Amino acid sequence: MRIAVILGSVLGLAAVQELATRGAVCSVAVPSTEHPEPDELAAQLLGAGWPVVRLGRPGLGNALLAWLDACQPDVVLVFTFPWRVPARLLVAGPRLGFLNFHFAALPGYRRPEPIFWQIRHGEAAGAVTVHRMEAAFDTGPVLLAQAVPIAAHDTHGLHRARLAVAAAGVARQLLAAWQGETAPLVEIPQNPALARYWPRAGLADVCLRWAEPAQALERLVRAANPWNRGAITTLRGQLLRVLGATALAQLPKPLQAPPGTVVLATGPEGLVVACGQNSGLRLDIVGLDEGYFTGGQLAALGLQAGEQLPEYLSAPIASAS
After folding, report:
1. Is the model's pLDDT at 277 over the cut of 90?
2. 203-314 — its CATH code?
3. Minimum mean pLDDT among 178-182, 250-254, 286-290: which range?
4. What InterPro entries has UniProt attached to this entry (predicted)?
């Protein structure tokens, strides 16, 4: 079995290593983008003695064709590749085609950054889904799907790490099926009626909106940690990042206040902000230009109950000049 791999992030590294230990990887290609992760990944692979082919967006079709001619794989496994593979190669490529590892359930979470949205929505599980690649993104029939639980305190980074580990197991299952050790894979078409496309999270998506219930805001904080360094709000005209928080389902009546109001600020008890539905969000870890602090430390520095944390998009931010 000869497997070629297009590896765009560390999400697929454990899977590639798993296949390589079984002698199945014939070549690895890494895209050249403006982001540092592929370059770091290529350097890591080269340092481990793996030859790496770099792929750029200009001339991608010809570069892929030359690569396939050189390594003659049975299948190409694709992990977080940022560009479309030309349709002619999807049709006339290796005998088992191009298979994409999508790090979410399909068809409900299509597009490149589903992890944020799954945590934001409170899904109980994400998934590693292997599907046949088609001209459109994330639409092909599914060969394998493995659910990956999203624990109550999982951040984006923690769930991402769990997905990477799960992908190695999925790759092992693929290889076992291809080698006749398990039942043949059955391709299951996706139901287009259930398809949802989710964009990359933008600025508005990572802002704390205090009218929401605290439980929803706690999920947002986890969904934005670490890639955005947390969810954002403001404090005294300065950007405040919230990297860790705990939802309090119901504030006692003496602490109930308009959303965005600091209702508790003490060293021992921490920092609690009023949210929608009379709930509260305890800010456990926060970030300012001066550093990272616990909520209790921020209270000890002078933040007081009764102060407001204006939402970022509606508040003027102090200039550094």
Report:
1. yes
2. 3.10.25.10
3. 250-254
4. Formyl_trans_C (IPR005793), Formyl_transf_N (IPR002376), Formyl_transf_N_sf (IPR036477), Formyl_transferase-like_C_sf (IPR011034), Met-tRNA-FMT_C (IPR044135)
Structural domain boundaries in the chain:
3-194, 203-314
pLDDT tens string 60-97: 999 999 999 999 999 999 999 999 999 999 988 899 99
HEC readout, the chain: CCEEEEECCHHHHHHHHHHHHCCCEEEEEEECCCCHHHHHHHHHHHHCCCCEEEECCCCHHHHHHHHHHHHCCCEEEEECCCCCCCHHHHHHCCCCCEEEEECCCCCCCECCCHHHHHHHCCCCEEEEEEEECCCCCCCCCEEEEEEEECCCCCCHHHHHHHHHHHHHHHHHHHHHHHCCCCCCCCCECCCHHHCCECCCCCHHHHECCCCCEHHHHHHHHHHCCCCCCCEEEEECCEEEEEEEEEEECCCCHHHCCCCCEEEEEECCCEEEEECECCCEEEEEEEEECCEEEEHHHHHHCCCCCCCECCCHHHCCCCCCC
Per-residue tokens: 88:
């002619």
pLDDT of 316 reads 60
Query: pLDDT tens, 109-160?
Result: 999 889 999 999 999 999 999 999 999 999 999 999 999 999 999 999 999 9
Cα of 253 vs its chain's centroid, Å:
38
Give, in order, the Cα–Cα distances in Å from 177 to each of 110, 181, 204, 316. Answer: 26, 6, 44, 58
